[in-house]
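Methods — Computational structure assignment.
A single polypeptide chain was analysed. Its primary sequence is given first, followed by the predicted tertiary structure written as structure tokens.
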Amino acid sequence: MRKPCCEKKGTMNKGAWTKQEDQKLIDYIHKHGEGCWRSLPQAAGLLRCGKSCRLRWVNYLRPDLKRGNFGEDEEDLIIKLHALLGNRWSLIAGRLPGRTDNEVKNYWNTHLRRKLMQMGIDPNNHRPRPAVSVPNKSVGSDHSSTCKPENSQEEEDIGSVLQCSSKPESNTGFLPDLNLELTIGPPLIEERLQLSHIDSTQLSFSNFSTVIS
């Protein structure tokens, strides 16, 4: 197992670098070169970790660092290299003079990735993103409400005829229905009384004729 680059001591400085520390690191590298980062802090008189010294030099103190915003040619190159190399930021930064891998990675995540998505390109595989079609419910509802079936006109005509036939006619010219059916039923009470009176008269007359004879 590899040992850590430096021993964890209570006197080890952490946090932001001071101007004095930056100057010590610059002077030492100008005289002796980068060398071994594990032994550099002690040789330069810095109470820093070797990894911290390397990152400070590579990302901030190198004289060939390029400051400022990325140009359009740099953006195009980063996009092309990312399509070939993926997230291998050290290799991409090696083809951009004056740019660090950390700087290129941050610029990709904050600017270029969003730019590709707005252009409709997937930033992972650099291919056009499939368009997602969302059905418009309002259009469908309007269409269903306005469109009628083919036989709707016929149904309307039939409905109007039935509605007109169901309406009662006006009093003028209205003739009541005549019931022409003949029924045979028992005689009424008055007719019964008349028949009984006639029968009694005939009976008395017949009795009178028999007495005379």
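Note: The two ends are 167 Å apart (CA to CA).
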